[in-house]
Model the fold of this input.
Amino acid sequence: MRDEFKVHVLNDEGCAKTKVLDHIFSETLDAIERMIPAGRERALVVTKMQEASFFARRAIALDPQNQAKT
Done:
């Protein structure tokens, strides 16, 4: 299987990092939603934040220090 499609199981450290990341993105989006009225622009912000969160999680998963030993 190509590396682009592999799933990496996280160890405890990797899981802890993703929880912190989730908290940061959630708090940031909450603040943004309080400032920006609902509409197309806010929807784009949400979509881009979801995309950023995905790639941040992927970066954590690709770090061998965060991967569970198999």
Remarks:
- The chain has one domain: 3-66.
